[in-house]
Design goal:
The chain is 34% helix and 24% strand. It is globular and about 65 Å long. Helix 6 packs parallel to helix 7. A 9-stranded mixed β-sheet has the order 3-2-4-5-1-6-7-8-9, with helices on both faces. It is of the alpha/beta class and 253 residues long.
Amino acid sequence: MMEHIMNNRAKLAELRHSLARYGLPADRPPVSLGNAGVDGVLGGGLRPGALHEVFARGWSGGGFAVLLAMLAAGTKTLFWVRPDYEAMEYGALSPGGLLELGGDPRQLVMVRTRRPLDALSAASDILACPHVGALLLELEGEPKCLDLVASRRLVLAAEESGVTAVMLRCGAVPEPSAALTRWQVTSAASSPLDDDWGNPVFDVQLVRHRLGGLGRFLLTWNLEHGCFDTANPGAVVAAPADRQAYSQSRRAV
């Protein structure tokens, strides 16, 4: 009987250790995106120590994911992990472009891997370090190694260390995942009334949020303040290439 009691005590001690390690972390303040509408839906901003998915519907989705990761990293180091195929297919990062968006290339560490499985392994190791600011994991298509179990491992690592993980999915179809939020992003046209037409504009849909509501937002990146603003509602869709942008009557005015 004494041996049975001792075994139960050992099991309880192991269970407490597991709960302390993998249980919910202490409350961490959310990271504001600078937009009242988005922050309100998110409950104050992007939750740190969590996994957030961004599905790119076009080239601009990657830019939105980078900006989210930049905000999450703050003044700490941002790790960007991508397999070699992504770099060949979508191009290499321009430090000058990152600087123009308000980022600091000196805070960025690029990690290139041979396979998606290696990228997941590197991401897990990076998330285990609490001194990292944020992780951007870029995976193209639908690799077999990225399943529900793999996403749960990333979530547990992020929750334990407090490091925010942003996973950029290009050319992929949403599947079951343990991510806290899921975004679908495409580019939007700048307003013809906006003199500063160079600011990127995003059509953003928050299609999954485990802790709150959903929504669709038209956002532009504020280069001066490093945050998202609501884009001018006068933004229009570009005219089809096989049609005239305006009618004859309007062009004559």
